[in-house]
């Protein structure tokens, strides 16, 4: 070994140790980033843990058969009944009203934007839809209670001040942007050659849209409808403001009724002690809500897989 | 063959019928879009018409009150701002880190798959369920109580999927040659992310963050669920000042303070039977709409600008 090489040695080892440090800090950063990504999994675990653990306490006091079959929901009365169907009926009716507005309107807008409108119209229409989708739900609640209900009462004087109908209609308007933008994306992904084939055979624009593009994009449309159902079922403030909060087992949209979500809000507004049966009911209601949305999500994934078209 | 036996007249009639149907559908599409626009216009104009008399400086500097004419939104807008601060401080680092991990580091294995499925599903969870999560975990298990901290963290979890997805989309748009160039001169993976990927993805990330915060500022249900008060006539303690009780507030005391936010104030006023409060609700609703729509407007503008400027 020459002196020259010996003086080089520390330099090399210095660089090596720097490399090792670099390696350690790289691994450290990677695990930090992984921890951040894992937060989403922890959130899901947290949701399931909270809902299930509180619901277990609840179902120790209330039998699950009563919960599913009782026709009264009076958890805070002396004569307490816990029939979740009362709240489910409100949720189902308001969601159906909302979907009856949102699905036709959203689909028509999507077909129009994807198949008929030119670039300029799209450039104006998309921000409008985005703004509509960005309006806070509490403002929509105000709109439903103080503008839509009085308007409906002009045509149906017997309509009460709170009703599932006006809340549902406004919920429908709120959901339109979600359906329109997702469905439009799905239809724009359909290759041009399919449309050209239809045009070449003499198909009109509308015929091509309805008989070629819509069937080809069906899995995307179905996904957007499923998302709309989840939104409608989980919507809270519009119903809490405009549909009244008294539990009412009804299938008539012209009546006021509580939904699963508006019941949770009502209880949270009061001052219920931690651990009481009233406190536990909101977790049982929340569990019901998440199970309903879960069912629709599974249905949506199944639909998407079954009707997916590959080009 | 029947098709061959059609006369020219008949074919023309068929074409005319098809064109008529086309234009009827076109009119329906425009009508639906017009209805959407009409709703926005009606909402805003009604709120301005009803609320304009209350939109004075006093409205922004007064606390809530039993007298509709004197009530203001001071505690509400301060509360909203502070909650948004906590939300942004929690959601931006975690969301961006998660997005970077999933795009730049994650291997294609079942763990990654679970994380991705999770993020998709969390975006479809109703917001009130996040409120229940926060009530059980943040308020009682962690003992944060009904504070700005609990609310901010709840909304951070709520908008996390939005931040993650927009980060991933922004990163995906960066071509591979940028990474290759950086690594070719000896940068590590993290150095590539830190000095190239994150800065180039910044406009896209920012757009997602603004859209997420615009959603969070209008959220009511989860915050009501954790038990935020509807009537607050004080502000959270300012750091290093001495309150009426002679206690000097620490730097972070405000995060544990009770609070109210804009949407809850509007809900409170909307649900009162006295129509005088309706005017307040309209005015506060208008202020909230301006906040949300301007945030969305900035995001839309930012995206438009980005699309024009990008040249790889």
Automatic annotation (TrEMBL), chain A:
Location of the protein in the cell: Cell inner membrane; Cell membrane
InterPro entries reported for this sequence: MetI-like (IPR000515), MetI-like_sf (IPR035906), Phosphate_PstC (IPR011864)
Coiled-coil residue windows: none
Keyword DNA repair: no
Domain ABC transmembrane type-1 stretches: 88-300
Keywords assigned by UniProt, alphabetized: Cell inner membrane, Cell membrane, Membrane, Phosphate transport, Transmembrane, Transmembrane helix, Transport
GO biological process per UniProt: phosphate ion transport
Transmembrane segments: 31-52, 82-111, 131-152, 164-183, 204-227, 277-299
Record-level Gene Ontology MF annotations: phosphate transmembrane transporter activity
Annotated Gene Ontology cellular component terms: plasma membrane
Topological category with respect to the lipid bilayer: Multi-pass membrane protein
Keyword Electron transport found: no
Family named by the database record: Belongs to the binding-protein-dependent transport system permease family. CysTW subfamily.
Function recorded in the entry: Part of the binding-protein-dependent transport system for phosphate; probably responsible for the translocation of the substrate across the membrane.
NCBIfam families tied to this protein: phosphate_pstC
Protein known as: Phosphate transport system permease protein
Species of origin: Dechloromonas aromatica (strain RCB)
Automatic annotation (TrEMBL), chain B:
InterPro entries cross-referenced by the UniProt entry: MetI-like, MetI-like_sf, Phosphate_PstA
Cellular compartment(s): Cell inner membrane; Cell membrane
Superkingdom assignment: Bacteria
Topological relation to the membrane, as annotated: Multi-pass membrane protein
GO biological process, one term: phosphate ion transmembrane transport
Keyword Cell membrane part of the UniProt annotation: yes
Gene Ontology CC, one term: plasma membrane
Keyword hit for Cell membrane: yes
Protein name (record): Phosphate transport system permease protein PstA
């Amino acid at each position: 070994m020459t002196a020259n090489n010996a003086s080089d040695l520390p330099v090399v080892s210095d660089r090596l140790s720097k490399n090792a440090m670099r390696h350690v800090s790289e691994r450290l950063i990677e695990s930090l980033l992984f921890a951040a990504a894992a937060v989403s999994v922890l959130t899901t675990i947290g949701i399931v843990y909270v809902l299930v653990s509180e619901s277990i306490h609840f179902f120790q006091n209330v039998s699950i058969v009563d919960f599913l079959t009782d026709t009264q929901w009076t958890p805070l009365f002396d004569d307490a009944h816990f029939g979740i169907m009362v709240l489910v009926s409100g949720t189902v009716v308001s969601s159906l009203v909302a979907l009856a507005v949102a699905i036709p309107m959203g689909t028509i807008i999507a077909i129009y934007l994807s198949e008929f409108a030119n670039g300029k119209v799209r450039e104006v229409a998309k921000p409008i839809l985005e703004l509509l989708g960005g309006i806070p739900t509490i403002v929509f609640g105000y709109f439903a209670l103080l503008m839509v209900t009085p308007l409906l009462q002009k045509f149906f004087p017997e309509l009460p001040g709170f009703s599932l109908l006006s809340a549902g209609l406004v919920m429908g308007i709120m959901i339109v942007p979600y359906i329109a933008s997702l469905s439009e994306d799905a239809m724009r992904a359909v290759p041009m050659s399919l449309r050209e084939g239809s045009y070449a055979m003499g198909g009109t624009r509308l015929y091509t849209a309805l008989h070629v593009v819509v069937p080809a994009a069906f899995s995307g449309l179905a996904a957007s409808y499923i998302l709309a159902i989840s939104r409608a079922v989980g919507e809270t403030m519009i119903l809490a403001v405009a549909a009244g909060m008294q539990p009412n087992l009804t299938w008539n949209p012209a009546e006021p009724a509580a939904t699963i979500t508006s019941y949770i809000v009502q209880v949270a507004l009061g001052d219920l002690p931690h651990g009481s049966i009233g406190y536990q009911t909101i977790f049982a209601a929340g569990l019901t809500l998440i199970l309903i949305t879960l069912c629709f999500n599974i249905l949506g994934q199944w639909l998407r897989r079954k009707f997916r078209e590959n080009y | 063959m029947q098709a061959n036996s059609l006369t020219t007249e008949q074919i023309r009639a068929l074409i005319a019928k098809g064109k008529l149907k086309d234009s009827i559908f076109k009119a329906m599409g425009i009508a639906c879009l017009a209805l959407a626009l009409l709703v926005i216009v009606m909402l805003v104009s009604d709120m301005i018409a009803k609320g304009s008399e209350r939109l004075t400086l006093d409205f922004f500097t007064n606390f809530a009150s039993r007298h509709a004419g004197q009530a203001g939104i001071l505690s509400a807008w301060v509360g909203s701002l502070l909650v948004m601060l906590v939300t942004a401080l929690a959601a931006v680092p975690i969301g961006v880190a998660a997005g970077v991990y999933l795009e730049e580091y994650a291997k294609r294995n079942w763990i990654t798959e679970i994380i991705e499925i999770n993020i998709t599903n969390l975006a479809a969870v109703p917001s009130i369920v996040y409120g229940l999560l926060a009530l059980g975990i943040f308020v009682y298990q962690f003992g944060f109580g009904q504070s700005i901290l609990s609310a901010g963290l709840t909304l951070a979890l709520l908008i996390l999927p939005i931040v993650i997805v927009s980060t991933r989309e922004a990163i995906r748009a960066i071509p591979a040659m940028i990474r290759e160039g950086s690594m070719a001169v000896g940068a590590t993976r993290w150095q590539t992310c830190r000095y190239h990927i994150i800065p180039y993805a910044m406009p896209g990330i920012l757009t997602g963050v603004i859209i997420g915060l615009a959603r969070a500022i209008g959220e009511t249900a989860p915050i009501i669920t954790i038990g935020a008060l509807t009537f607050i006539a004080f502000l959270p303690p300012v750091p290093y000042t001495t309150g009426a009780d002679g206690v000097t507030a620490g730097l972070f005391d405000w995060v544990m303070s009770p609070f109210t936010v804009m949407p809850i104030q509007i809900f409170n006023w909307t649900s009162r039977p006295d129509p005088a409060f309706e005017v307040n609700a309209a005015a506060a609703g208008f202020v909230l709409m301006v906040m949300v729509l301007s945030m969305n407007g900035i995001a839309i503008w930012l995206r438009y600008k980005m699309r024009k400027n990008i040249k790889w």
